[in-house]
């Protein structure tokens, strides 16, 4: 089990990983981001023959801190994660616009900062709606949090569901991108 520091506490997010000894890492490494201005989840997944967690965590931001300072923290943390793990792509969840427009705008700001952090380091960026992620990871576009955590656990071969939810959501975004990329490669090879 690997434990990661998340702002003010440790979180358990995965198992020890084994990487392909021939190449040093799997065929594709994806940074998944679940954007937020209070809690931002991130997850790095290797997507070779078997998907594996590299790292995940949650950036906990204080409500009393100005939005500008929170967004600066988001940028700094994601830039550090990208520099440390050298992902091949970034996959970012799009904000869900429901009844709370204010919340959607805040999430949109965090999404824009995550985009900037990835773009500044030359990563291709992909966006997925919550329904796309749920459909791809759990096979059902209206899956609940527990179903998603369990499917993330199964697909990453973990002993227990990743915690907290924001880290599991970020891992789901990365899994979604890896699976859709595999599908697109398979379809291209069939032409």
- Given the structure, what is the number of helices? 5
Overall geometric form? globular
- The count of β-strands is 7
**CATH-scheme architecture:** 2-Layer Sandwich
CATH superfamily: Ribonuclease H-like superfamily/Ribonuclease H
- In total, how many domains does the architecture comprise? 1
Give the mean pLDDT. Answer: 85
Explain this structure.
β1 and β2 form a beta hairpin. The protein has 191 residues and is an alpha/beta fold. It contains 5 helices and 7 strands; from the N terminus they run βββββαβαβααα. The longest helix has 25 residues, at 165-189. The protein has a single domain, classed as Ribonuclease H-like superfamily/Ribonuclease H (Nucleotidyltransferase, domain 5, 2-Layer Sandwich). The protein is globular and about 50 Å long. The strands form 2 sheets. It has a 5-stranded mixed β-sheet with strand order 5-4-3-6-7. Strands 1-2 form a two-stranded antiparallel sheet.
Short characterization:
The chain is α/β, with parallel strands linked by helices. 45% of the residues lie in helices and 24% in strands.
Task: Please render the helix and strand layout as text.
Blueprint: E1 2-6, E2 9-14, E3 29-34, E4 39-47, E5 51-60, H1 67-85, E6 89-93, H2 101-120, E7 125-128, H3 130-138, H4 145-156, H5 165-189
Parallel strand pairs: 3-6, 6-7
Antiparallel strand pairs: 1-2, 3-4, 4-5
